[in-house]
Each structure stands twice: as C-alpha cells, then as structure tokens.
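Slide 14.
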Amino acid sequence: MLCEPSHIGGSIVCLQVQKKTFLDCSALYFKGINSVPLCDPSQNGCFKLIPQVHQKYDFPSTTLTPIGLSPALLPLLTIKLLLIILFYLYDTLPMNIRLYHPNSIVENSTELLSKEHTHYVVNVMRLKRGSQIFFFNENGEWKSEIVFLEKNRVEIKILNKIRNSIKTSNVELAICLVKKNSMENILQKATELGVNKIIPIVSERTEVKELNYERSRKIVTEATEQSNQLTPPKIFEVKKLKDFLKNLNESTRLLFADINSKNNLNHEDVKGSKSLCILIGPEGDFSPLERELILLNSSVKPFAISRNILKSDTAVISAISLVNFINNFN
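Slide 15: predicted structure.
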C-alpha cells in the first residue's frame, strides 16, 4: 500500500502503481486532508495511479477524495476517444459503395471489375470478400457482392436490381470555359444539381479554349456516384458562341443569366419547354456584340441571379438552384 492510516487519516484507498512513460506524474494526484500527492514526479520514470480497493479504514476525522486527471490532459484524451470511436464505426458500419457501369448489367451474372474499379475497391476502400457494391447506369441500379478478391483481380456477382431507371432532368448548362480549378468545380456542382447536358462555350473574352474531356468525364461520373443519381451528364464538344446559338433546338428555352437584367425568373418562363438551357458567360462577361446576339434569339429569357457580380462557378450554382426550384416546385 502507498498510504497507511497513520500518514493521513480518514478513509484510505489502497493504490496500485503502473509505470507509464508518456504521462506527467504531476497531473495524476489524489487530494486528502493535507493535500498529500500520491504520485511523486521526482521518481525515475512516470507513474500512473490506478485505484484498486483492497481494504478500507474508516476514521471519522477525514476522507480521501480522488481528483483524477489534470484538466490540461482532458482535450488530448477526448480526441483520442473520438478517434477510437471513428475507427470503430469505419470498420463496423456498412458502406454504400456506388460505381458507374456503362455496359448492360444482368442479374445473377459474374463479372470482373475494370482495372480502375479494382484499384478503388482493393487499395482505396479496402473492401473484403463478401462486401457489397452497387452498380448503376441509365437503366437502373443493382446490388452485387464480391466473390473473389486479390490485389489485381476482383470478381463480383450481380444479385438483384434495387432501382429502376428514372426520368432525367430537362435542365442543361451552357458554360463559357474558365480556368481548370473553377471549371472542375463547375462540372462537379452542376452534376450534383442534376443537369443532363454540359455544353462548353468559347466567347470573345474566354481565356481558356480547350477542355480535358477524359478528366471532365471522370469528374461528372464521380459526382453522379456521390449524389445518388443514375446518369452522368453528357459533355459536348467545345462550341463557339455563335455556333451554339445557331444550332439551338427550337424546343429548348434559353435562360440567359444576364448581369444587366433586372427580370426575375418565374414559372411562366420555364413551363411548357422540352428542355431548359442555362447560359453562363465568362469571368469578364459577354461583349456588347455577343450580348446583343444572345438577346436576338427567339427562345431567350434573360434573368437576374444576384445584384452582386459573381464568379462563374458561383453563378452556375445559383442559376441551376434557382431554375430547379422554380421548375420542380411548380
């Protein structure tokens, strides 16, 4: 025992000492009538006190009250506890892994995953044999199970269909090209918000003239997987503004997000149209000649999205959200 009744008096709890090299002894203490610490930091190494009741001496004069850890250590212990909980949840909770499969999917069939999907399943998500993966395309979504798994080979069995195909949105996006980071953000957010087509435009003030199609398709595919949709938006080839306006389908309503407009968008502007195409200009806006050309189009409806001047990616999110609200609400 570390304490005898003759030392302090009162209720004495026997203590067992365990050596710990990463704790400060002065942070662990017990306070009695004379504030006598039961951990001596002057000793070699650090000692953590673990209460362990062996016997109890009751004296009416005083009591020995355990205080515990110093408040300075509580944030560290809290963080450690949270990390333990997160790792436990990561290992035990089921994960809903969705992967786009452009080819036809047949129930009760067995397939090998592509090299890209194999890397994702084995090295990124670290799935195991028996784990479930959900594959989808424009025809629906299917549940599958991993039946064979090695470093460079994963085989899955399609179990059953869990979702049928759904009608896609009639909202399209015509966006003047911007720099890489902003453009990738536009592709991701436009996909998440449900557009079915993305048409890159080159105007007089467009600084970027090309689009990386492989990278762009990967971004919209991953955004489709994440946002629980079935069909990634189609990305068209880059078009000049005048060619885009010339070839615009007559059944498409062109919703021009015009910084100079004071008109609000309403239900009458979107109803009855087969498709709704939102047109967003470049960072420096369209030139006066281009703006005039846009307004001459018979299907155009200019509208305001903000009193402020917005960057292209912010304008895209605002405009699509506004059109979706009006289109879906009514």
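Speaker note: The chain has three domains: 12-70, 98-164, 171-329.
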